Amino acid sequence: MYENAFNAIEKALRAEEGISNELDYVEQTSWVLFLKYLHDLEGERRDRAELEGKTYAPIIDGRYRWDRWAAPKKNGVFDHDTAMTGDDLVRFVDGELFPHLALFHDRATGPDTIEYKIGEVFTELRSKFRSGYILRDVLEIVDGLAFKTQADKHELSALYETRIRRMGNAGRNGGEYYTPRPLIRAMIAVVDPQIGETIYDGAVGSAGFLCEAYDYLRRPDLSASDYETLQRRTFYGQEKKSLAYVIGIMNMVLHGIEAPNIVHTNSLNENVLDIQEKDRHDIVLANPPFGGGERREVQQNFPIKSGETAYLFLQHFIRKLRAGGRAAVVIKNTFLSNTDNASVALRRELLDTCNLHTVLDCPQGTFQGAGVKTVVLFFEKGAPTERIWFYQLDPGRSLGKTNALNDDDMAEFVEMQRTFATGAKAWVVERTAVDASTCDLSVKNPNAPEAETLRAPEEIIEAILARDAETAEILERIRGLL
């Protein structure tokens, strides 16, 4: 049912002039889903309050309630007579609904409240529906979706993840919102978070790391207190971009986290020297954006100045970790060998202040649409690095859109990492073997078969000329026989 509903939504959106690509599909589906989710959540809270003999004050009330403007019903049946459609619906959404919900930001008591999420979402997003008839179709389809049971949310989250993955493959920087889930699951398995620890992603994107960590920690036999801890005191994130923020919120909601602790802000605006113990976390899981180029005033927030956004994020993550905290961070593989001052200084800081125990070398094509190779750095804060275990991931095939990374590809890495076992694709580098002046950590597999020595250009030219002479001689003999 849900698959058919999502397909029907996409079919309707393809006919909408204001919506042109996969990013728009996800964006516009997200705000409609979010409002339907809030309506169902309010219904649950109202029923709970009645059972406890309490009164319930709705978050969204009056003509802005879902069952007043989006899906009015009469005797349980959709009431087409009172439902707005056409230009009336578009005018209400653009001119009244969005401005009203944006004001929730002012009344929110903190970023961990639903009011804050509502205010942020509807301050940053705009409805791109130009046809009220198409919007009416989408609203009626979404009204048929239920968010009441964990099974409902699980199926919806799987479908939503599929759309995020497609968006990540669609170009126009879509890939920045999607990290392959098999890679995320392997990173989480190595870091092994426990209930009671806090998990942070300062470049949260579609919240893939936080959602997968929630799935890793959630068990059927959780106590009520542990469940409350998972819901409210475990997952923290920050996101700069509006669309990514909305997608991240919706993704976490669909995974079962009612009020995600995601703040809409640029993590790099925080001076890392001002980070206090109360701001730190036990675990960092992240895939920060590459390239970029933050403003000069942003770079002043970091002791190691750099125009590479990922380098600033790495400094941010190191300082966001508590002593003994664990991290897994994706970064361009050139970080390991670049000779510029910032790269060398950052590698030295990482080696001196953290135990960089594992480097996972990912093959080309791990990230769809990305032209760079990446590595994953696994480190613990508080003790210097003594030895580094390298693993060169080789799935034995070329990765691409139709042949993506899967969990089986990651299984050997996760298993070998537990004991830092060595082999054809894994080796150990002692800190004493790392050049003290450059801190070069280039991936150089000592177990790889030696490549044949390339011949010198002069030798190749001589061989070609000799072969040409031999060919000419053979042709002359043939001519003599004719």
Automatic annotation (TrEMBL):
SUPFAM superfamilies named among the record's database cross-references: S-adenosyl-L-methionine-dependent methyltransferases
Domain of life (superkingdom): Bacteria
EC numbers: 2.1.1.72
Keywords from the UniProt entry: Methyltransferase, Restriction system, S-adenosyl-L-methionine, Transferase
Family that this chain belongs to: Belongs to the N(4)/N(6)-methyltransferase family.
Annotated N6 adenine-specific DNA methyltransferase N-terminal domain residues: 11-79
InterPro entries: D12N6_MeTrfase_N, DNA_Adenine_Mtase, DNA_methylase_A-5, DNA_methylase_N6_adenine_CS, SAM-dependent_MTases_sf, T1MK-like_N_sf
Any one of the GO BP annotations: methylation
A Pfam family it matches: N6_Mtase
Extent of the signal sequence: none
The keyword Transferase belongs to this UniProt entry's keyword annotation: yes
Annotated protein name in UniProt: site-specific DNA-methyltransferase (adenine-specific)
Enzyme class of the recorded protein, top EC level: transferase
Recorded catalytic activity of this chain's protein: a 2'-deoxyadenosine in DNA + S-adenosyl-L-methionine = an N(6)-methyl-2'-deoxyadenosine in DNA + S-adenosyl-L-homocysteine + H(+)
UniProt cross-references to Gene3D superfamilies, sorted A to Z: 1.20.1260.30, Vaccinia Virus protein VP39 (3.40.50.150)
Domain DNA methylase adenine-specific: 152-451
